[in-house]
Specification:
Elements lengths: L19 H10 L3 H34 L19 H6 L6 H32 L5 H11 L5 H14 L5 H25 L4 H8 L4 H12 L1 H16 L3 H6 L8 H6 L11 H21 L1 H8 L7
Helix pairs in contact: 2-13, 4-7, 4-10, 5-7, 7-10, 8-9, 10-14
């Protein structure tokens, strides 16, 4: 029989197939997995460093400006030629009444945090445990309320508080601050409480506890990291608040430190005490920085709460 010759495979179009030697050379020219990991790590470090530099540069410039004397405050040197503490001494001088303002800020921020967390915790519990129509819509409305511009409310609220005789009193600042702090507290606490093992509450109620006792004795300790983190976020937001406090306070009887710094006076009528204001800003920021550094483990635990499996 005649032998049938089968045609071989058609040659591939395009670039010819590389042999083993050329393929190995191509792999050597490319990046190995370890090299890719190192490149990714380097990119991550550079990105985090750029973000940290962007966030810390204003604070660094505030510290540098606070160490400059009155004659050097407008210089753009990255570090003062002759650092001085004259601005820090001026902060605590009698004409600025800085300590009274710090007391007012502590009272306002502390009261707002306690009341806001109490109302926010009960509201979050209701959102998690109760079933009612349009619950998701209500929770979304709470979050949307935090996006409402506060400046639009100043005029009617100021008129209302004027009629009640509340202007230049603590409650004129605390009540609006609570209204703006509640959405943040409710939203974060709802996320934390939703992930708690609610079977423990039912078990406690079977053992004789009321629903309130089961929540207070069993679930609240489990939610402590989340509650602590939410309270710290609310405290920082209220401590730094300026718009409402500036509109509702007139004298040192209730002015917080943010408003008092803006009204610092210089040695003469037309002198703007930039150095003193920068020094006061550093002093006001230090307690918040210390809180975050000392309590960073609790903050991280609160931010990662919710990983409990029932």
């Amino acid at each position: 029989m005649p032998t049938t010759v089968r045609p071989g495979p058609a040659p591939a179009l395009g670039r010819p197939r590389q042999g083993p030697v050329r393929q190995a050379a191509a792999r050597r020219r490319g990046l190995t997995p370890a090299a890719r990991r190192r490149l990714g790590t380097a990119g991550l470090v550079l990105s985090v460093g750029a973000i940290a530099l962007f966030c810390l540069a204003p604070f660094y410039w505030m510290v540098v400006s606070s160490l400059k004397g009155p004659n050097d405050i407008l210089n753009n040197d990255l570090w003062p030629a002759s650092p001085t503490l004259v601005n820090y001494r001026a902060v605590f001088s009698g004409q600025n009444n800085f300590l009274y303002a710090l007391r007012n800020s502590a009272v306002i921020a502390g009261t707002t945090t306690v009341l806001g967390m109490l109302i926010g915790l009960l509201s979050a519990y209701a959102f998690v445990r109760l079933t009612f129509p349009a619950k998701r819509v209500a929770l979304g409305a709470v979050l949307a309320a935090s996006m409402f511009p506060g400046v639009a409310l100043l005029t009617p609220v100021f008129q209302l508080f004027s009629d009640w005789g509340w202007i230049d009193q603590y409650q004129a600042v605390i009540i609006p601050d609570i209204s703006f702090a509640l959405p943040l507290a409710i939203w974060t606490l709802t996320s934390f409480l939703r992930e708690l093992p609610w079977d423990l509450e039912e078990s406690a109620m079977i053992d004789g506890c009321t629903q309130a006792q089961a929540f207070r004795k069993i679930l609240l300790p489990l939610a402590a990291p989340g509650v602590f983190t939410s309270a710290l976020l609310v405290f920082i937001a209220v401590w730094n608040e300026y718009l409402i406090a500036n509109a509702m306070t007139l004298t040192l009887a209730s002015q917080p430190v943010t408003v008092a710094i803006a009204k610092f006076t210089g040695s003469s009528r037309y002198q703007q005490p930039f150095g003193t204001q920068m020094a006061a800003g550093v002093i006001v920021a230090l307690p918040l920085i210390a809180l975050v550094l000392v309590l960073q483990r609790r903050i991280v635990a609160g931010l990662t709460a919710g990983a409990v499996k029932g």
